[in-house]
Amino acid sequence: MKEVAVIGAGMTLFRRHLLETGKELSFLATKMAMEDAGLEKDDIDMVVMGSAPDAFDGIHMKGENLIDGSAAVGKPYVRVFNGGGTGVFAPIAGWWHVASGVADICLVVCEEKMGNCYPHPQTAFRHIWDPILDRPLTPNLLWLFAMEMNRYMTVYGVKKEDIALVSVKNKRNAVDHPCAQLADPNITVEDVLNSEIMAWPVNRLDVSPPSDGAAALIFCNKDIVHKFTDDPIYVAGTGWSIDSTMWTNRDLSFPRYLAQAAKMAYKMARIQNPRKEIDFAEPYDPFSYKELHHLEGLLLCKKGEAPILTREGVTQRDGDFPVCPSGGLLGVGNPIAATMGQKVCELYWQLKGVAGKRQIPGDPRIGVANAWGDIMQMGTVILLKRG
Amino acid sequence: MVKKKEYKEWPPYAPGTYVRESDIREKKITYTWWEPEVQYSWSLGPAMSKFLQGLKAGKIYGIHCKRCKRVIVPPRMFCEYCFGPTEEWVELKDTGIIETFSISYLDPDARRIEEPILVGVISIDGASPQHGFMHYFGEMTKDDIKIGMKVKAVWKPENEREGSITDIIYFKPLNGGED
């Protein structure tokens, strides 16, 4: 397997509605990543597109619609998607294009336009439920996460106050992110607990917003990386795993599929004690409890321990183990696949030391990100490290 | 290759143009509109057909995976873990326990509703632990409901059942919900 470097990253503004089309957003994010790497379209060998359910955009098989904005015309191109897992799975796919030796330089573009869908982006989620047993009950997707959050709280005795701290931390961190949609420098735990109950135990401020946006990353074979940078960031490990579709036949209190994916990535990165050997994390946080659930699934702490670390301030940007220094999905926004921007692009910027006001102290050398998708069953994990 | 753009902080700018919902409503931006019309019909396969016919008759059926020694509900023709065929249908009870639940103030389109929907996962008695399905709860309030509560199916009258998960109206507390 080839060693793979990251040499460029870009992302757009995240907002509920952006004027630009999906193609145009893909173009803007790609251009920023190309400026970073010093590349033109002809320098790119292959392109991976990550974009999640077609039903948001309203354009079926939208991978094809997005080609022109993704610097992919005339090149090998593939779209990958596994719902919310896509923001980390697409860069994994970019990595394997280069690791396999098939491409020397692979561009990954992630795009999502959720604002297109009416009366609410949630309406698109009507079409992802099992048609036989679930749809006749006319579910709202938030039910799933509320049920998982309740199970997690009950099994490990977690309080809503401790979960609310995640929203507070991430929305405050997002103040320093120029693309952020829902940053709030003054938010408190009381604000979260007193916000509208949507599907108990989930309150409005426990949820990330639907968003439009795009992000891009450029992967490069280590053998030629010296042409582009003296300070490369490398992919240290990748992992992915999926559990059964039958979500009512599993214990929702622990994401075992994510633990499987994390073990795969840690083995590749030769990491034996993840909490000690990894410097910071960007776990997927579409809901406040998910950051905690994912820290445990990533084996960065014991089951039920993540709320305690959060309460003790360990996961603050200047804490012992910074978590979601970007501001996460809760603060920056949740354009499903394009959350690659706060997850994997953020690892790259933090490791290069160019995250500005978001920069975590202490010269981080290795970071981990994950995403989570399909029907609460897909775990995708990537580790980046300094050269 | 071209010369790199050097910036001290990344992302150096945030490209994209914010559009407010009111800009769309008031047609301040140029847009187009589409309402798809499409219908689907699914044939349900042998396992789900038997399960739903069972519901029509007021019974909940599970199926046995002999290799994994588990009784599975909802039933399927194969076991996704050992990947062997399942065999031997088992009639389960119409009681179970609440594995998890939510109190929802949202309808499927995220519109707000006054009276909350009580919904959750019920592990069915007679199946292996944590084997069950999603359904509504009734005859209890948002203050009574708790994980671990014993519940029982409330069925539609026989002549109104049509072979659907909604042949069960909801699950109600059994013996006051205690074990």
> Which overall shape of chain A is indicated by the principal axes computed on the Cα atoms?
globular
Count of individual helical segments of chain B: 2
Spans of chain B of at least 5 consecutive residues whose pLDDT stays below 50 are none
Quaternary structure of the protein: heterodimer
CATH superfamily of chain A: Thiolase/Chalcone synthase
Helix-strand category of chain A: alpha/beta
Q: What is the CA–CA distance across the termini of chain A? A: 17 Å
Q: Briefly, what CATH class of chain A?
A: Alpha Beta
Give an account of the 3D structure:
The complex is a heterodimer of chains A (387) and B (179). Chain A is of the alpha/beta class. Chain A has one domain (4-119, 209-386): Peroxisomal Thiolase, Chain A, domain 1 (3-Layer(aba) Sandwich). Chain A has helices spanning 22-37, 54-57, 62-65, 86-99, 141-156, 160-173, 189-194, 256-268, 274-277, 288-297, 306-311, 328-332, 340-352, and strands spanning 4-11, 46-50, 77-80, 105-113, 197-200, 202-203, 212-221, 233-242, 280-282, 366-373, 378-386. Chain A has a nine-stranded mixed β-sheet. In chain A, strand 5 and strand 6 form a beta hairpin. Chain A is globular, with a radius of gyration of 19 Å. The model of chain A has no long low-confidence stretch (mean pLDDT 96). Chain B has one domain. In chain B, 9% of the residues lie in helices and 32% in strands. In chain B, the strands form two sheets. Chain B has a five-stranded antiparallel β-sheet, with no helix packed on it. Chain B has a three-stranded antiparallel β-sheet with strand order 2-1-3, covered by helices on one side. In chain B, a hairpin with a 5-residue loop joins strand 4 and strand 5. The longest helix of chain B has 12 residues, at 45-56. The N and C termini of chain B lie far apart (71 Å).
